[in-house]
Specification:
This protein is an alpha+beta fold. It contains six helices and nine strands. It folds into two domains: 8-124, no CATH class; 128-193, no CATH class. The N and C termini lie far apart (45 Å).
Length: 197
């Protein structure tokens, strides 16, 4: 029996619709027999937005469906096909695409477990500064800025020019908060969310 290829994330960040289709069409650098059998694609995955997950669900009838995943009816090669995952990680839903060997019923759960393990490890190894930088870059420009840009008198002089983001506080609505003053809970809430806010 041939050993399955290792699990491999093939795209950093969250793929847009255009990027998702480019990844679907990318041919791995592998021997022709591995491409024809599907082995070259098997166990590769990447993150997508919910809108792409929903679009793909409506695009073709699924080959199989569970509450947290579905596989497209069309195979990529051999018995390897596209599987879309809706996975809750640290209290937030995220969406992924992976190629699984649909001839092996264990491959779906193995892929799901590999994605969760990888994503949890990524955040566990990050420093606070790296997490804040990730939050800053993933926050839409309309929801981030510099303290004092619009109203310098609203900020202490030592805080002017520091990075801010808009957050929702319970009972307080949307407020500007200095990025460096996010609590650990606020940081953890924003890291695994996937889509840019």
């Amino acid at each position: 029996m041939t050993q399955a290829p290792p699990f491999r994330k093939i795209f950093d960040g969250v793929a847009t619709r255009k990027q998702m289709f480019e990844l679907f069409n990318r041919v791995p650098d592998a021997p022709d027999e591995d491409i024809a059998s599907g082995r070259a694609y098997s166990n590769r995955w990447f993150q997508i937005y919910r809108s792409e997950y929903d679009m793909m669900f409506e695009r073709m009838p699924p080959r199989l469906m569970r509450a947290d995943m579905f596989a497209l009816s069309e195979l990529k090669a051999g018995t390897v096909g596209s599987v879309f995952f809706d996975i809750m990680i640290d209290g937030c839903n995220r969406w992924f695409h992976g190629w699984c060997d649909l001839g092996d019923p264990r491959s779906l759960d193995a892929m799901r477990a590999a994605i969760i393990a990888h994503e949890k490890a990524v955040f566990a190894d990050m420093t606070r500064e790296q997490k804040l930088e990730m939050i800053w870059t993933r926050t839409h420009p309309d929801f981030r800025g510099l303290a004092g840009d619009a109203d310098p008198d609203a900020w202490l002089p030592e805080d002017r020019g520091k990075r801010t983001i808009v957050i929702c506080e319970p009972g307080g609505g949307s407020v500007l908060k200095l990025l460096e003053r996010l609590t650990d809970d606020e940081i953890n809430y924003r890291l695994p969310s996937g889509p840019t806010i």
